[in-house]
Amino acid sequence: MKRTDRLPRILAVVASCCAVLLAASPPISSGQEAAPAPAAATADLLQSQPFDRITLLDGSVIFVEPVSPRPLPPVEMPKPEPRGRGGRPMLPLEGNIGLPGEPNKFQPAESRKDAPPGPETEITVHLTREAATGRGDTRDFKIKRNHIKKIEYFEEILLAEGERLLRARNYTRAFEHYLRVQQRDPDWPGLADQVDALLFAEGKQALADGDVSRGLRLLRELHTRKPEYPGLLDQFASAYSGRIQRAIELGLYPEGRRLLHELEQVAKDLPQTKALRSTFQDQARARASKTGAGSESERLDALVEALRIWPSMEDLEAEYIKAFEAEPTLDVAVVDVPHPVGPWVRSPADARVAPLLFLPILANDSEEAKRGQVGGQLAAELESTDLGRRLIVRVRPGVPWSDGSRDVSATDVARTLIDRCDPRNVGMYQARWSDLLEKVQPLDERQVEIRLNRPLLKPSFWLDAPVGAAHAGVDGRVVASPEGRRLVGTGSFVGFDSTPQSLDLRARPEGSGGSPSVKLRRIREIRHARPAAALAAFLRGDVAMLAHVPPDQRARLAATPDVRVGRSAQPVIHVLALDGRSEALRNRTLRRAISYAVDRKMLLEETILKGPPGEADAPVDGVFPRGSHADAAGVKPLGFDPVLALALASLARGEMKADAIKLKLEYPAVAEVEAVVGRLVEAFQLARIEVEAVPLPESQLESELRAGRRFDMAYRILRCDEPVLDAGLMICPGYDAPPSVDALGSAASPRILQLLLQLERAAEWPTANALALQIDRELRDELPVIPLWQLSDHYAWRSRLKGPSPTADRIYQGIETWEIAPWIAKDPWSSE
How far apart are CA 746 and CA 784, in angstroms? Predict the structure, then answer.
């Protein structure tokens, strides 16, 4: 008997076995299909071996390995061969003997055997293995197609399960089922439609849940697959409209335009899209028309703001170019502005801006400067007598104050020098200058006599401070109108407006102190609370200059077209200042624990630079720049030893009889500082030193420290032009503060304070240099501050600004020759 003749009986036996195995299972309703075999019922479809489910005409269900081909061709019912009496094949009417010249139609019985059946009529199957034992029937079975009621392919089972999960909003699992179908057959019928439905449903749900970014990403993927999907464009318009309107309300116009561009890529002709474009254009025109008959500066500002709302407006752009050429303006992105501005230098922001507003008495220590042959200073001549204890300053004539009231006189210089000795004038007071000065008096309108207790090592260090007007108030301002008071200065620029968020400087119409008139008419420093925002504004083109480039962004900006990067002549030193007025920080053991807890090299390279260090980037063992004349040779680098730090901190707690050490670390909002402060706090916590980090604007922090305010630890960024003269302020922030605040008590090491006081009274350079070297050697062990690292300081500008130097002592050096061209940042896609 043929194997195919035994198939019905074998299938009956298999069905009987399945019935016995399932007898203990709960009964199912007549509307349900037969329960699956254990191997398929219990296994996860994503983990199980592929199988197909076949339902026979009698309702029996068998699980087989995937059949082939997939899917099977349509069923073809077998056609019986016509037979005559006795079951013999019928002969054709014309007979089976061909005529002469024709082929013979006679076929022997052997040649009339049936051809092998195809998948249209019969398939070969192999039963799946049991899940528990991994064994199965090794035999192949043949099933006639007309005996099969239904066949469910594994891909169809996966799609059905995915659809069920989709209705249950389990989108991740549904996607996994669809992904397995794609792995088996990317072209399986219905797969693409199911994936489209999943993308639409999940994207729509994400939008409803408020996850707009994810929802739009899914819908954009669906748009790429099937742009005409029903309801897709309406979802796009609804989602984008809300985000664009929100961006407009917050003034985030570049973000709003980017979103509008994305919407136009998929639904350009929708009414909502056209209405949003009109909203931008209407707001731009409204902003441009607000000033009316205002000043040239106000008109320029209005046009700039209008074009930042919608840059592609040719009529407004033409007006902007005309207004800019009449009022060339330099916009600078900063993280801090001096506020208030005055005739003093008590923070890095003051040091940056003061030279633009005020001329010093003496620009430098060259003989040309002392003879008055250098521009940008008030002294026409500096005469020194009595072994340097008596100075005569002759004031240059024809240097007017910015309010036009009169020229600078000897009275102005004398009052400034006296104000620096008045402890009540916290902004200008200098304790060291008060100790130096014996007497100052004007001899006449143009001459000032300065008597000193000891000679000056470097006169320009003491005579380069801003000089304020004697007829102005203590803040350097005079009453300009009933509405307010105006800052009076002698520099190339005058303070026009100052707020905590911006500083507006205007060029004076005439030269100042013999200096030529500047080509720039305005400088606007715009403060960004976050360093990343300042960088973003520069990259967008909203500003032409970036005052400080984060160290990890140097290479990126240097490789950016249309951008130039410059470097300060001197590196900056990063230290942790310690207040010796705190009982805990007077403990030398604790200071050593803090130092040993810091891995300087790792933090510098991995957190701040995020790459290999440059030539000037390195850990430091003191407060003086590496390679300077005060950098002592042979001083060992400060080590990193977390175990020793933990032991020293424990020993310090015992010495102070304290259960815990809690300190506050105040730090400036500068990019590299923000990046590393968290790591420093973690390092201190490992040593069981609890530290709370508190951010502050750099100018506020530095000015308060210099005024003698109490603190625990403060992260400081120091610039050192002359180590001998800068040592005191670098080690003790309140070194020049009034005596009433006990500023010298903030020096955590009495030994270092003793050396600083000796250095202050040194009358000769060899003695001063020797003391500076001694301070550098002993600072490593005394640790009145915690040295961290030194970094080269960089700034950047757009190529439309001509004049900045690749290397400069200060950012605005040589600004008298700078020129700038009009330019508005365009969207990247506007040229498409």
Answer: 9
pLDDT tens for residues 781-832? Answer: 999 999 999 999 999 999 999 999 999 999 999 999 999 999 998 888 876 5
Give 363-384 pLDDT, tens digit per residue: 999 999 999 999 889 999 999 9
Residue among 600, 603, 594, 574 at smallest CA distance from 670 = 574
| DSSP E strand boundaries for 436-489 | 437-442, 447-452, 477-481, 484-487
Phi and psi (nearest 5°) for 440? Answer: -140, 135
Amino acid letter, 176: E
Helix H, strand E, coil C: the string for 755-790 is: HHHHHHCCCCHHHHHHHHHHHHHHHHHHCCEEEEEE
pLDDT computed for residue 281 by the predictor: 94
The size of the chain, in residues, is: 832
Provide the 3-class DSSP secondary structure of residue 694: strand
CATH fold for domain 362-464: Dipeptide-binding Protein; domain 1 (3.90.76)
Give the model confidence (pLDDT) of 722-738 as tens digits: 999 999 999 999 999 99
The crossing angle, in degrees rounded to 10, of helices 253-267 and 271-288 is 150
Q: How far is CA 570 from the centre of its chain?
A: 26
SS3 491: coil
- What's the DSSP call for residue 365? S
Neighbours of 625 (CB within 10 A): 22
Of 613, 596, 595, nearest to 604 by C-alpha is 613
| DSSP, res 380 | E
Task: Classify residue 400 by its DSSP letter.
Answer: B
Question: How far is C-alpha 819 from the chain's CA centre?
Answer: 30
pTM to 2 decimal places: 0.78
Biggest CA-to-CA distance, the chain? 151
CA angle, residues 728, 419, 484, in degrees to nearest 5: 120
- The per-residue pLDDT for range 254-294, each reduced to its tens digit, is 999 999 998 998 888 889 999 999 999 999 999 998 865 56
Band of the pLDDT at 89, cuts 50, 70, 90? low
- The fold adopted by the segment(s) 572-791 is Dipeptide-binding Protein; domain 3 (3.10.105)
Interhelix angle for 154-167 vs 171-184, to 10°?
160
All structural domains of the chain with their residue ranges? 362-464, 572-791
Q: What is the DSSP letter of 749?
A: -
Please report the pLDDT score of residue 295 as a whole number: 85
Contact 475, 338 (CB under 8 A): no
d(CA 331, CA 457): 39
Percent of the chain with pLDDT over 70: 88
Name every residue whose Cβ is closer than 8 Å to that of residue 520 and which is 6 or more positions away in sequence: 328, 329, 330, 507, 815, 818, 819, 820
